[in-house]
Design a protein that fits this description.
about 120 residues, mainly alpha, 4 helices, globular
Length: about 120
Amino acid sequence: MGRARLPRRAPGPAPRPQPVTREQLLARYRELVLHRLPDRARAEGWVVTADHCFGRIVLDHAVAGRWYDVLDRRRSPAFAQLDDDRLAAAVALAERIDAEGDPLLRRLDAQSLAWRGKPATGGR
């Protein structure tokens, strides 16, 4: 017997992914920064394990500096103050941390601390 043939895709551009809503981005940020990344960090011995530290690192990189120089630290949660583009970038970075783990996290943490004039935390 011959192999089954897959139906041909119609010519033209690839289908566009469905747009992600702001609410979906906020929910994904919360899931990654408050739960998934800290859980993995504790289980795998990453340099950073606390959710607020993940928040600091991701927010700092979303605004390219100390997040509290750009966002109002009195208005909580700070990540909800990000515009849509920065929020999407923050979620993408958190996804990248999830994919690449501790080596990437160490570099991002070192930069975040450098923006604060602090030395990087423990090295292995």
